Amino acid sequence: MGQSWLDKAERKFGKYGIRGLMRYIVAIELVGAVIGIFNPLLYNLFSLNFAAIAKGQIWRLVTFLFFPEITSLDPISILVFAIQVYLYYMIGNSLENIWGSFRFTLYYISGLVLSILAGFILYVFAGVSQWPVGFEYVNQALFLAFATIFPDIEFLLFFILPVKAKWLGILYAVMMGFDVLSYLKYGSEGLAFSVAIVISMLNFLIFFLSSRNYKKHSYKEHKRKTQFKKNSSPKVVKIYRHKCAICGRTDISSPDLEFRFCSKCDGNYEYCSDHIFTHEHVHR
Length: 284
Hints:
2 domains; two-stranded antiparallel ribbon
């Protein structure tokens, strides 16, 4: 079977993968949280506004990532934000461990590029200049990928009810489909919003529906390979220098023992301190 385009890209550009990418993503989200809490007006300068970009404010193509997902010091908001950041950090690291740094980096960055493309479509076809998202749809695509790779991992819904990731992923997809269909009733502008949402999630479809070697990057396959390497790796056997001819103990198994050769035995017979004076001499 031929290699998929992802395998070919990884073989050629694999060295460009960003190891530990989620650490940088979390750092950006925390900076965005500080902006949202202490100076939310900065968002107007950083947001993905294509009308402003058309006037030369191209920094917005990057600074939109600092979209504040929290705007107050309310304890509930802080708790929800902290759980969300930790959850996506765990999910991202798990996917990187399975896919490798390059494939995960490509998945995440392609999601960001598609989010920009979605905002551009809204601006061109619906006249909506500002696309108010940061990592929102990218993280949603991240969760769908996680639910596909780790379908049996359980989450505690409301900290009480255990639910497998595959069911949450299905629920997530259904809710997103409902949003897309709901926008369609608002005419051309609603259609543009629906298309924008679908495009934002397109990296998930590209990675999983067009990949020939999906099973190669599944959790079960990764676990099988890890177990095989563990079982097939050569075992290191320490070489002893002294061994008792009676009990078989060595300076490795019993480092506190003393070992001596017996001058009355015919041949090179060595004994531990417990048998050097009690053994029967060997005569040929």
